[in-house]
Amino acid sequence: MVPDVWRRGVVVADRSWASAQLIEAAQAGDRESITAVIHGAHPHVRRFASHLCASPQDAEDAAQEALIILYRKIGSLRATGALASWMFRIVRNECLRRARLLSRHDEGEAGLMSSAEDEAIGRLEAEFVAQAIRELPDVQRRVLIMRDVLGHPGRSVAETLGLSNAAMKSHLHRARSAVRLSLGGGPGTPST
User: Fold this and answer.
1) DSSP state for residue 3 in the 8-state scheme
2) What is the 3-state secondary structure (H, E, C) of 29-49?
3) pTM (global) more than 0.90
4) Which of 49, 73, 82, 166 is packed most tightly, with the most Cβ within 10 A?
């Protein structure tokens, strides 16, 4: 676990695991530095994965995959200051990959895609929806993904994001309306 330190009477997580000097040593292949970076990153990566992945098991698997990639490829990291965003991008991509696999498995069982044309149209529609979601403000995007894409209960979404239930519902309503408008539906168009 990352050690805590006292600053002005408040316990703060020690961020020394992400120091430029430690990351540079890890990039150079120093095993102790690599271990320290991975050990320090683990709780942050796991917490982020738990917000994005559909299940706790997927979150743990995504976090482990991200740490394995960090171990294997830390030498290819270009800027030491980009470590956190690089790690979170890996976690996000792994969670999305797992969601796609689950979705394909469900579609295969239900026989939803009957032809290559249907599959192409489905991918195109999914890309339009994904683009509309990417354009949302950060909090709205997170609420929408956690609630509508991952299916988390509203109260859980609110607690996870540190919002009141009313604020979460407001962000969700705005996000749904913005996506609907972006996809060409009017404000009164019912969502599916």
Assistant:
1) P
2) CCHHHHHHHHHHHHHHHHHHH
3) no
4) 49
How many Å from the N-terminal Cα to the C-terminal Cα in the chain?
A: 44
* pLDDT tens digits, one per residue of 71-127: 888 887 776 667 777 888 888 888 888 888 877 665 555 554 455 666 666 667 777
26 Cβ contact partners less than 8 Å away, ≥ 6 residues apart = 33, 34, 36, 37, 74
Give the type of residue at 27: Q
Average pLDDT, the chain: 77
User: Which H or E run includes 85?
Assistant: helix 83-110
Task: Read off the pLDDT of residues 151-165 as tens digits, 9 standing for 90 and up.
Answer: 889 898 999 899 999
Check the CA dihedral 100-103-108-114 and report its sign.
negative
Output the CA–CA distances (angstroms, integers) from residue 103 to 36, 106, 113, 114, in the order listed. 36, 5, 12, 15
CA distance 65 to 71: 10
Query: Of 96, 92, 30, which is closest to residue 66 (Cα–Cα)?
Result: 92
Enter the tokens of residue 121: 């149209």
User: E strands of the chain, at which residues?
Assistant: 4-7, 10-13
pLDDT the model gives residue 119? 65
Burial class of residue 80 (count of CB atoms within 10 Å of its CB; 0-12, 13-18, 19+): middle
pLDDT band at 189 (very low <50, low <70, confident <90, very high): very low
